[in-house]
Amino acid sequence: MVEDDADIQKVIRMSLKMKGVSEIVVVDSGTECIEKLGGFTPDVILLDIMMPHVDGYETCRRLKENPATRPIPVVFLTARVQKADRDRGMKLGAAGYLNKPFDPMTLHDQIVAVLTRHESGEKRLPSLKK
Amino acid sequence: MIGERSILDSLGSGLIVLDAEERVAFLNRTIADMLHASPEYWTGRPATDLLAAMGHYALPVAAPRFDWPDEFGSREIEWRDAETLRYFREDSSPLAGKSGRVLAYHDISHEKAVDRMKSEFISVASHELRTPMTSIKGSVDLILSGFAGETSPEMQELLEIAQKSCDRLVRLVNDILDLSKIESGQLKLNLERIDLTDIAVRAICSVKPLADKTEVRLRVDRPTALPIIDADPDRIEQAITNLLSNAVKFSPPQAEVVVELSSDGSWVQCAVRDHGVGIAEKDLHRIFGKFQQLSEGRRRGGTGLGLAITRGLVDEHRGSIWVESRVGEGSRFVFRLPIVSPHAPNPPALAGQSTQ
Description:
The complex is a heterodimer. Chain A is mostly helical. Chain A has five helices and three strands. Chain A starts with 5 loop residues before the first helix and ends in a 12-residue tail after the last helix. Chain B is of the alpha+beta class. Chain B folds into two domains: 108 residues, Beta-Lactamase; 149 residues, Histidine kinase-like ATPase, C-terminal domain (Heat Shock Protein 90, 2-Layer Sandwich), CATH 3.30.565.10.
């Protein structure tokens, strides 16, 4: 989870924990996200857009530019809800685009739905689906 | 005695008079300077030459909303000269007895800049508001789900109030953002070839959960086939959804709301009819205004912007919208969309073409 707001981090964490997702690595900047990814490969990256320095768009661009991180699905979770914002995010190769405020009761299902749609042609589905 | 020419030359606004033969009868200094030629140079020349020269500089921002040249009309144009970009409002009025036409150009660059700043501010503010709203809504929803332990019935009731208000706040922020885009002319239509029936069905599906709460029945009444039109499907769905959810909100339980679709060859029409409380005649004129909801609407959780947005969306498609209503009998909100594309060229006054 790449999210710079500590309160929203907690809400996302609890919302996913409620659905049985226990392993969540939280970083609060795009730079930190890129650095951290050297060590492990998450099933999915939940990415905020409006963050200082390196924003979500730039983070996604860099992730998709690097062959090592390109296959990791990126789902934007953002307050930028306008169509132009969404189009920009999806053009960068994101698997999905979810709006804030989100419904914590269905966030997990929405992520899974987005990933299923995105990966319908692929064999590997993230463990988040279990 | 001060001459008429010097008076008109001193106007801050540009002025062009065309005679009945479509020749330049008069052109003031302001517009001549903008065209880098003297008024004398242009006087007596065909209007088409002048319009062609202006066409190098001027581009309509939006399609004109008048049938040139017999009516009064107004539109915005962009004026590009070397490095500078200015905005003008072009007013066109016929001279008495159709003996010609007056075109006046008012510099509105400053107003446009202020508009743009206002709309940028609203856009940023709406993004910023979403962050705390996400935390509030997320926390309240999670507590209500029982995730954080049991809540007493009183706590539950209070949290539900917070939840409902938060959802309303989200709708309000969404609506303000939409309306600001419409008003600043920044709404971009993604036109597709659409069948209004499909869009109406989609809108009904999205309103159905709301209608189910009070067992209101939704029905489409349509001819076998409607002409295909060029329109933005998402925006038209938004317009119909707004009208439908209003109709449902104001309908008594188990009533029927009907979407009537029709066409007369040059228009397709969509009417949403309910058997709700109706609107008093004295309120009809302001129903499409911003924050003009009647007290009943406020009580039912409306934002007061839905109809203003709906009208804006229909206007963007060069359509028209109106309401027919009687207190106690219900309301019928109707909009029409032209079958020709909203982006089809109108006879331009400034594109360097002759008139039709």
